[in-house]
Each structure stands twice: as structure tokens, then as C-alpha cells.
Amino acid sequence: MLKKEYLLVAGSILLLIVSYQLAFKRTIEAWQLHGRLQKELAQANGAVNQPAYLERKSHNLDQIISLYKTDTTIFRSNTISAIASIAEKENVKLSEVPTQDPIYHNDTFIIQKLDFEGDYFALAKVFNLLQSTKNIGVPRSVIFRTVKAKASEEDSKKLIMEIYFETVK
Asked: Quick count: other Cβ atoms within 10 Å of Cβ 136?
């Protein structure tokens, strides 16, 4: 027969193991994670206080924003004429500049739709040039579609490229 003292010791050890698995283990892991995150935060805090780092970050953000910026008051004249001259160099026609739709405006951005006509390769070149040209906005999306040219011409289709430009107000 087993003594009650041995059962008490075995029960205590079993209770300690179950308690560790259910409660203490997760608490100890959370405490270790907290310590590791505190160390990482202390290391990252030093980087934020470096003025040169903040200046480089600000300069890089300004360069990214400058891609989107254009003067919205002259967008409909100077910028569209610049876009038309880019298209003309590649034998592409700026076929339509619809009126500005208030749906595409918000507090910070304006989206302008432009339609171009031409063959696929010329349209692709124009799109590439428009992406790389600064201060005209950034192409947000492009759609290629074909339409019938005129009812009098048989099976005549033309390729249209619709580009939505996003600009910062």
C-alpha cells in the first residue's frame, strides 16, 4: 500500500505540471516577448531621433509626391497640350478630353480621363512616355478597347486607349 504522503507529493507535482502548462507557461512567454519588444523599441527610438534620417525620409517622400503633383488650374491647357505633343510624336491622336466629372474629385486628388487613338505599339509607347514624364500626373489605370470607326466603312475598327491620370490638388 502507498503511503498518503507519497500520494500527496505525487498529486502536488501533477498539479504543479498542469498549472504550469495551463497558466504559467503563457505568462512566462508573454513576459519574454514583452522584454524582447522593449529592446527593439529602444533600438528603433534612436533611429527616429536622427535628423539626417528624417531629412532623407522627407526628401524621398517629397520626390514621390512630386510625381503626382501638377497645377490643377492649368491642367486642362498646358498639361494637355504637353500630353498631346507626346502623343503626336508617336503618331497617336488625342481623340477626346471629356469634361471634368465631379465623381473623380476629392479633397486631395483629381482624376482626369483622356482618350487616345492609334495602333497598339504606338499607344504602348505613348503610355510608357506618359508614365516617365514628370509634372503631368501619374497614370492610374489604362484601358484598351476597339470600336467600329464609322458605319460607312466595312469592318473598320480603331483601337482606343483610355488613361485615367491622378493629380494632387
From this structure: 21
pTM: 0.53
In Å, what is the CA distance from 113 to each residue of 6, 33, 76, 103, 109? 85, 51, 11, 12, 13
Taking each helix axis as running N to C, give the angle between helix 120-132 and helix 80-89, from 0 to 180 degrees, rounded to the nearest 10.
Answer: 140
pLDDT, tens digit (0-9, with 9 covering 90-100), for 62-88: 888 776 665 555 555 677 788 888 888
**How is the chain split into domains, by residue range?**
4-49, 71-168
Comparing CA positions, the residue from 94, 60, 65 lying closest to residue 80 is 94
Fold of domain 71-168 = Alpha-Beta Plaits (3.30.70)
99 close to 80: Cβ distance less than 8 angstroms: no
Cell of 151: 458605319
